[in-house]
Amino acid sequence: MTFAAQQKIYLVDDDEAIADSLSFLLEGFGYQVVWFDDGQQFLDTVDLSEPGCAILDSRMPGLSGQQVQQLLNETASPLSVIFLTGHGDVPMAVDAFKNGAFDFFQKPVQGKALAEAIDKGLAHSERQSWKLKHQALIDSLTDREKEIFQLVVNGNTNKQMAEALFVAVRTIEVHRAKVMKKLGVSNMAQLLKLAPLLHRPDHEE
């Protein structure tokens, strides 16, 4: 099917009959589904730092879907969360969205609607994963390297940066090379793509 259909789809629901039915339904849309009947088992098994989509039931023995979502948030996981529950109501849906859920469905669900939500959720998860990984690289820069990064994306030449910072041009060249290496980029276009992440608000997740 699509690139998205090749990504990780995790179904967390304690009802085996529903899990079988949903897995069969989603496989018809080209997805490969991994089922967990327990929220803690899901959290302990899956690499939460990788992109994908988690479809959570709300009421389950042990951790509820809401608790699983909270723990995903606490680990800054890029996984997109879709709730699929037989016990949903408006306040529950509002809370889910407030906590970052990508979509909220009540059982039974229309296959096409769920598949469309999964596709969008996976695309969002890929973007979040890219952002988180590159943000970590930017955070690893020293203050001087961040300063060089900013001056570079502002269009300053090495000579202009050297004059502004009262250092030798060679020093600028060394710092600039370190910035490129740490960020894993090889040209200006790639560096500019990362520029919006340089000034992340402290309160942003």
Taking the sheet with the most strands, its summary is:
5 strands, parallel
What is the strand tally? 5
Strand order of the largest sheet: 2-1-3-4-5
- Structural class determined from secondary elements: alpha/beta
Order of helices and strands: EHEHEHEHEHHHHH
| Gyration radius from CA atoms, angstroms | 22 Å
User: Kindly state the mean pLDDT as a whole number?
Assistant: 89
Strand content: 5-15%
CA(first)-CA(last) distance: 32 Å
Indicate the percent of residues in helices. 40-55%
Give unreliable regions as ranges.
1-5, 201-205
- By DSSP (H or I, 4+ residues per run), the number of helices equals 9
* Shape label: elongated
Keywords: DNA-binding, Phosphoprotein, Transcription, Transcription regulation
Pfam family, one: GerE
Protein name: Response regulator transcription factor
InterPro entries: CheY-like_superfamily (IPR011006), Sig_transdc_resp-reg_C-effctor (IPR016032), Sig_transdc_resp-reg_receiver (IPR001789), Tscrpt_reg_LuxR_C (IPR000792), WH-like_DNA-bd_sf (IPR036388)
